[in-house]
Amino acid sequence: MRQNDPCKYAPSRAEIDQLHERKRRARAEAIDRLVADARDKGGCTDRMYWTIVHDFERADWTTNLQQLEEIGVCPPPPGDVGHQELSLVLWELIDALAGLGIYLIHTDHLSDRELYERLMLHVLREQVRDLPPDASVHEYIDLSPLLKRGREEDDEDGTLRDAAPASWHDAIHTPPSVDGRRDHLLPRPPSKSN
After folding, report:
1. What own/partner pairs with CB < 8 Å and gap ≥ 24 does 186-191 have?
2. Which phi and psi angles does 23 have, rounded to 5°?
3. Does residue 194 belong to any structural domain of this protein?
4. Are 83 and 125 part of one and the same domain?
5. Torsions phi, psi of 96, nearest 5?
6. pLDDT for position 190
7. Which one, 36, 85, 134, 182, has the greatest CB density within 10 A?
8. Domain check: are 44 and 132 in the same one?
């Protein structure tokens, strides 16, 4: 019997597959209903159009951290991870995300510690649409330094200011992580076979 605390229960591969299959079925049925409603109203019946509408506007909200917990993956808080185990814990997290169809890009400028903290304290807690892993659905988490530095931020007086670096060259040429480059090792979606 499943426990209330997902961190104390590790579902079997079969249970994880069943969860994802239920989500895929529910997604397909919701898209079918959108297409049928459009047909009844004489509107657009293009399934791809309604798939996009569903995925971006209608699917339930969750977080990537909640999606991980559903499959029994509960990464420890950054403060509980020592230097010796950090690399292993980080790669376990990266692999678990890939298993959900979630892929990281542009991480080389971050140390292992910085990447783990950014993921655990911010990125994985952001609201996302709850889409099941699927060959046609992938989420990419872009950790590019340009994105962080290029946002507008509130000034102390509440007005917006441009947070971009004085030189884009500085942002593009941020030194690689002290722990070494990892982007070429990151999981990628499986290639589609013909």
Report:
1. 186/94, 186/103, 186/104, 186/105, 186/107, 187/94, 187/95, 187/98, 187/103, 188/103, 189/101, 189/103, 189/135, 189/138, 190/135
2. -65, -40
3. no
4. yes
5. -65, -40
6. 82
7. 182
8. no
Query: What pLDDT does residue 34 have?
Result: 97
Please provide the size of the chain in residues: 194
> In terms of Cα–Cα distance, which of 83, 63, 82 is closest to 73?
63
- pTM, two decimals, is 0.76
Mark whether 46 and 16 lie in a shared domain. Answer: yes
Per-residue confidence (pLDDT) for residue 168, from 0 to 100:
34
- Residue that is written with structure tokens 């990151």 in the block: 186
pLDDT (0 to 100) of residue 154: 44
User: Residue 140 has what DSSP assignment?
Assistant: E
Closest C-alpha among 107, 77, 83 to residue 94: 107
Long-range contacts of 186-194 (CB under 8 A, 24+ apart): 186/94, 186/103, 186/104, 186/105, 186/107, 187/94, 187/95, 187/98, 187/103, 188/103, 189/101, 189/103, 189/135, 189/138, 190/135, 192/135
What's the confidence (pLDDT) of residue 33? Answer: 97
The residue type of 152 is E
Answer yes or no: are the C-beta atoms of 40 and 60 closer than 8 Å.
no
Residue 89 lies inside a defined structural domain of this protein: yes
pLDDT of residue 181: 84
